[in-house]
Amino acid sequence: AVRDFLAAEGIDSRPMVLPVNHAPCYEGYFLDNFPVATEMSHRSLHLPSGNRLTVSQVARVVSEIERFFYG
What we know:
Layout: H1 2-8, E1 14-15, H2 35-42, E2 45-46, H3 55-70
Antiparallel strand pairs: 1-2
């Protein structure tokens, strides 16, 4: 829902990647499946970031997220 809201406002976001223990190259390396990390990756997303983002661009992303959650 928040991704669709941000997209409608012209703000890109991407789903969070799964924890490293889900990568095929690490199969068998971990004794646990890290359920909390897995759950958090499903409930998280990547927001715009980078050293070229201006303060006003960051403020706009924050403002739109606040508007989504708080109206």
